[in-house]
């Protein structure tokens, strides 16, 4: 059970799919994903993101605990770090340390917000959306 407040169970503790772990930077990110009702697996909260300028390296985050959970029948780790410099560094580090395990490693798609106009979107987001485009059949 996961408790965010005393005696108040988090809805993320009732996952039916225990073969997937979604890795997030903080509990607020897990709650945001849970509130979409689009994911019903487990979560792993790192406690932040790698940020050398802020003195946060891999040893300050809970990577070891994540690796300890991998052997329990986990088939996929979904990296849901923020699309920021520190989030991307964290995602790259996760990809590196998970490479030796026989599991699928995926990352949340990054792209254009629903209802937006291209002229108002920053260049990096548009470039990422072009690179990460999907084929329509």
UniProtKB/TrEMBL annotation:
The keyword Zinc applies. Residues 19-113 form the Toprim domain. GO terms for molecular function: DNA binding; zinc ion binding. One of its GO terms (biological process) is DNA recombination. Pfam families: RecR_C, Toprim_4. Keywords: DNA damage, DNA recombination, DNA repair, Metal-binding, Zinc, Zinc-finger. This is Toprim domain-containing protein.
